[in-house]
Amino acid sequence: MVLLVVSGKFPNPQPSTSLPLTTQKLHSFSLLQPYLHSAISAMMQRRAKHVVGPNGTTASNNDDDGGSAKHKTHPLLVPFAPRLPASIPPRSAAVSECSSRYCLPGVPAPLKFILLSFLGFAALMVMTAKDRHVHHHYKNHKEDSGIRGGMQKEMLHGVPHAPESLHKKIVREKYSQPQKSEGTDTINKAAERSASVEASERMLNQPSRFVDSEKKLKQQLLLLMEKQKAEKKSSASNPNDSVLGIKISNRYLGEDLLPYPESKGGEKEWEKLMQDRKKELSKVDAQEWKERMQQYSDMMEDIVQDTGVEDHSDESIHNSEEHMENNHVEDTTKEELSPPALAIPKHGTTKSKLWPTPAEKEGEDTTILLKPAFGTHRPASNAIFVFAEGYDLSIYLAFVESLVNTGYTGDVVLSISSEDKLKPDVKEYLLSKNARAGLNIVAYEVEWSCFKRSGQAASGSGEGMHHCQMNHAFGNASGEAIPDPREPRPVATARYELYWMWSLQYNSDSWLMLIDARDAWFQLDPFKGLTTSVSPGDDVLVAGELHLFGENADVVRIGTSNYNRNWLVTAYGKNVVEPYFEKPVICSGSTMGQQVAIETYLRAMVAEFDATNCKSKGCDQGFHNYLYYSGKLGHENDDVIVEGIAKVIVHDQGKGIINNLGALRDKPLSEWGLYDAKKEVVLQWDGSVSAVAHQYDRDKEVNAMVRGKKRLFEKQWKDFVAQS
């Protein structure tokens, strides 16, 4: 067919050589004839040089009268000519042809070798770029300011600590910290440079499985999925009643407004409701922001007047890097970690009584009425404080049984749902652990009055989304119950008041741990090796250690986390907290210390809510990070010492007693070298066993292991009940 097109004319059809194409189809190629003719003619001429004809001569030996191949009859252009074995060109000729066309004719062989070597080296550089980046990072950045979320190179065992994209994200220019010498004007300019538009507090406060297991939005969308599956089995008679292909929203705006319309016909009305709700919340945000800033300013002025303490907030902004260096203490083994509580002379304390007790908000004569539902505190014991309301039996089994298996013999103090709301078998199980010897359970049943954001009364905390007040927790001097002195707030914030009440039941040298209930897994006794002896005299003030535990600093910083950045900005304002955007995140769900230090820390946490009135779920983590980075908790080598806190020690992720795993979602923990699947244990960066694995459920493999343990614990509990 191609030969006929090139020739520009059609031969008479022959019975043996006719082509199955019509003249009409061939004319469609007419525009391509000049290009095809030129290319094929050149190709045929090159091949003719090496083709042997029937008479034993090559095509190149034939006489050429200079005519165009278009008008000449060439032996190779005869349609359907019989193929002769002799017409196959010799291999040497083919190689020569390849060399002349593809192997850079005219280029010397040494230069060709150099070019090929360069191309190979370039390909190797591209393939190994990621590994070289990680090597350079750990070679030149062994320590970052503040918490060192990664490890030194020799401790990595060949496992990259974070992908290159995450390292670049951490140092983005939009989060660059202004120089100290430029002052407040530079901070304001840096705030104006931010290209991102700040979402409202309510828009960013979305349910997520990454923040305290909030799954409200997911639950609503699962209901939609079930409806769609049911409709597929029996199609809707009216298209307007269908739920297939309807619009959905990825924002949670309350229980009374679903993230999808009821049907296809209701989409327009649903969209209008969505827009109205967003406008309404935007106005509420603006008003709340003004009120919070005014309350914060008033509270700070009152504190300064009452205590005579100079406000160092501006100084802390410019010296945050220095604060981090002073506060950071090298990690050691558990046996070397914690000396006895320190006795500090009274004359060295200039921040005495900086924070009032939570009870003093209503007055100095306020008393605590809250008592355990069952169990008794043992003042000389160590204790673990847990807010554990609304969970089923499996959560309590995983927490308590894993702790029992470590040999821990201290107290576990729990806040649980009221008896009429407890899940089956929970109370019976907890009562079985109420003992004078070994692990001892102390449970509180707190009565809450909760409200939706609209102010309407709600049943329960709504997985932390509702705002609640404690009933019958405080009383007057006569012991009569008084209303909660604080406005409704998330239970995640109110829990620190409970922790403070519980802390008063223990000796000053007892060790206390504050940790989340749902995602904590114990592998070793967390208090083993900690010294607790102290004998304060009349002229000294007892002070202890406060231990904080960071998230992985190579993966997430305050500025790169929408949640953490928003909590701080909402509570304190962007100009105040922007210098902390490059700092590592410190987890508020895992804290340890001696009783005297923990009690002071808890007073500070409650005071921050009173000062800021930040009611977003998660603001407690904003308070937690602000207290540390602002220097309000004191410093190790400083004349200014906070009453009760001798020093604050911050542990890198994977190097302290509590290993926070939540930020490491880029790949499985086993690939990070932090999980031994054969031994079923979570590891530290140095390969040792972590005492406490926190946020383990973010990893599929570890979560599956714990679920298997839960099933085993449930079976053991059922067998125990059956035998008794």
Estimate the helix proportion, in percent.
Answer: 25-40%
Low-confidence runs: 1-29, 58-88, 141-164, 173-213, 307-352, 533-541
| Domains, number | 3
Distance between the termini: 93 Å
Tell me the overall shape.
Answer: globular
In this structure, how is the largest beta sheet organized?
8 strands, mixed
Question: What is the alpha-carbon Rg in Å?
Answer: 37 Å
Number of helices: 23
Structural class, from helix and strand content?
alpha/beta
Question: Averaging pLDDT over every residue, what do you get?
Answer: 73
**Count of strand segments:** 18
Q: What is the strand content?
A: 5-15%
3D architecture notes:
It is globular, with a radius of gyration of 37 Å. The model is unreliable at 1-29, 58-88, 141-164, 173-213, 307-352 and 533-541 (pLDDT under 50). Strand 6 (447-451) and strand 7 form a beta hairpin. The chain has 23 helices and 18 strands. Helix 17 (491-503) packs antiparallel against helix 20 (595-612). It folds into three domains: 2-97, no CATH class; 201-296, no CATH class; 309-723, no CATH class. It is α/β, with parallel strands linked by helices and 724 residues long. Strands 1, 3, 4, 5, 10, 12, 13 and 14 form an eight-stranded mixed sheet that branches. Helices cover 38% and strands 11% of the residues. Residues 313-337 have a biased composition (Basic and acidic residues). Residues 176-187 have a biased composition (Polar residues). Residues 175-201, 313-362 are annotated as: Disordered.
